[in-house]
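Hypothesis: this fold can be encoded by more than one sequence.
Test: take the structure tokens below, design a sequence, compare later.
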């Protein structure tokens, strides 16, 4: 490998949310990585920083070109410049869009278990959460289309939040599934907000399908939230984009982002995004290979050494979804005991909806030596339960 993913980077004392934990604790919960970003991005930021003047920043043409080029090259989907709007993050974009496209008391549909902040974005805007739980069968997840169509048809349902690829289960939705979602949503007059922030973190040789690329229906009924932040570990720089092909819908979303003051970049937001998409490809390919090995290491270790746990296979994200039903504990009980007895900090599955109660989520985006430490702690606690 040309890039170093094995070195352990000390993150304590850097105001890291993830690493704000007790001495001896190992945080493998929140979705950021313990790797330095691509050196090409750091170089671009340092070059900009050396200028010394950090005034108000506009969005230049190269920002649009870098997004368009990346999605065309990596995901075989060509966006147009006018579709794209800068925003400071995917979550702010989702919250702003919900606020603009709904009225308080209306329904926003989500497919649980799903990213827990979706609940906040809905409830904080006075809307009601409507769950279309995924079906877990044969060790994998699929959509419940009968239930989905029924809930989309409710006149009170105005927005659906799609997670593509799906966090926390690591599922990449196929074209047929996404086409069915688009048809149902369009027929029911529901706008689909597609969170595609994990799209670049897939198994090598496997790609995701952009929702808007599937059909004219999907394109015209969707708001897609994208960013380099997950793939290149740039969350703290607050840089993202919204892609909205339909002109009238885009006008509403653009007004929402501007009204909420989340449509203007900080000094380094544009620099980092452009460097990622223009110069970070080789780094990302090596990262994906490293993450794939980490996933395989974790899955094989658990299946061979901790038979009371059952990891769910996935082709996306750097998050592993693990079933704890075999221990006799709920995900929350397991995660609490795990942290208390070993210091390993994972996220209880119930945070992603009630259907996640028998699971926990663990983040394996770290040097392999750190991952092994976490797996050893996991085995130690699981064995203590048996005893």
């Amino acid at each position: 490998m040309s890039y170093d993913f094995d070195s352990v980077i000390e993150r304590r004392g850097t105001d890291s949310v993830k690493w704000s934990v007790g001495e001896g604790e190992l945080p493998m919960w929140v979705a950021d990585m313990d790797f330095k970003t691509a050196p090409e991005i750091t170089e671009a930021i340092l070059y900009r920083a050396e200028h010394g003047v950090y005034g108000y920043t506009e969005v230049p043409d190269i920002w649009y070109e870098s997004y368009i080029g990346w999605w065309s090259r990596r995901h075989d989907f060509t966006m147009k410049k006018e579709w794209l709007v800068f925003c400071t993050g995917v979550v702010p974009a989702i919250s702003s869009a919900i606020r603009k496209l709904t009225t308080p008391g209306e329904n926003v549909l989500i497919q649980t278990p799903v990213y827990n902040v979706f609940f906040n974005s809905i409830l904080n805007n006075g809307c009601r959460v409507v769950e279309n739980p995924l079906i877990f069968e044969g060790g994998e997840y699929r959509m419940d289309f009968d239930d989905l169509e029924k809930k989309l048809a409710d006149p009170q349902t105005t927005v659906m939040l799609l997670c593509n690829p799906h966090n926390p289960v690591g599922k990449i939705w196929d074209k047929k599934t996404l086409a069915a979602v688009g048809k149902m949503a369009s027929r029911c007059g529901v706008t689909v907000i597609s969170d595609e922030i994990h799209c670049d973190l897939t198994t090598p040789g496997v790609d995701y399908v952009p929702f808007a690329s599937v059909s004219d229906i999907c394109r015209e009924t969707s708001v897609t939230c994208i960013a380099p932040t997950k793939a290149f570990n740039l969350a703290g720089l607050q840089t993202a984009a919204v892609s909205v092909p339909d002109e009238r819908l885009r006008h509403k979303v653009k007004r929402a982002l501007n009204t909420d003051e989340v449509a203007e970049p900080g000094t380094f937001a544009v620099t980092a995004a452009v460097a990622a998409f223009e110069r970070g490809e080789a780094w990302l390919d090596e990262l994906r290979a490293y993450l794939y090995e980490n996933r395989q290491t974790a899955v094989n270790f658990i299946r061979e050494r901790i038979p009371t746990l059952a990891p769910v296979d996935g082709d996306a994200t750097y998050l592993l979804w693990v079933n704890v039903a075999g221990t006799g504990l709920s995900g929350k009980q397991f995660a609490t005991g795990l942290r208390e007895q070993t210091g390993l900090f994972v996220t209880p599955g119930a945070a992603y909806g009630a259907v996640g109660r028998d699971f926990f989520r663990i983040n394996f985006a770290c040097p392999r030596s750190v991952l092994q430490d976490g797996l050893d702690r996991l085995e130690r606690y699981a064995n203590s339960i048996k005893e």
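Residues 89 and 113 are 22 Å apart (CA to CA). The two ends are 42 Å apart (CA to CA).
Hypothesis status: open.
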